[in-house]
User: Fold ZNFX1 domain-containing protein from Arion vulgaris.
Amino acid sequence: MHYILKCVCESKFLHVHVDRFLSELQQRTHPDAFGCFQKLVDVIEYVAKNMRAYTSHCKQPLQSLLDVGKGLNILIEEKDLTMRVRRLLQLTDKENIQMKTERIYYKREKAIPVPDDEEPPEKYSEMTIFPVTDELFDSVEPFLRANKTKGAYRDLEHYLDIHSRLMKEDYLSPIRTGLKDFKIAQQNNESVKEHDLRFYYNVQIAKISFDSDEGITHLIHFDCSPFIEIEWEYSKRLMFGSLLVFSKDNFESTIFATVANRDVEKLKRG
Assistant:
């Protein structure tokens, strides 16, 4: 049952089909509608209480249940059912707050700076702009010295070394956190919570070409079925210059690239 509900939650059930069903339910009489209404509350209650990854997804259908229930006088006459729906709404609000708190915690989690007088393992000019795979995981401690707020830098190289490493860590840290969440979700058989990262599946390289301005480019295909409702014209997904991380072995090895061209019509087709 848990697996079936997981598939249901990852479909359009909670945010599309429930609303449509409730709209049709308003045309029915009270006795006929009550049974359907109660069963729907049972399903959403199970999801909200037993499937934490989807608890926050229940807020919209629960609010719709309240609105329709009042219109049909179901919630006015059935006080116990009203209390159940309201308690579930409180649960979803609590989960949303906790998710935001966790997100803030992840964003604030920073590596402890090394002493300013400690010499770096290599020159900043020899560092790769793209990270190596090991840098994506906590097993590698980045060499970071704090930005100086008092006193002067020793020289230009000292200044550039500190800031180039801090800038690299600024984009690496959310990737590291996102991949950590991704692997934990996999282990727990849960849906991945996308914060700073967006995940695309069944990615394939369809074409390789060379352009004098853009250099070597690859035309990429991905499974667009989960993104049918995305309005690509306004979405910030896959913007020009966005960093991409490709992997075929669950991020044991990686290839990095950036978005060189963004065609909205092609994005809609994957």
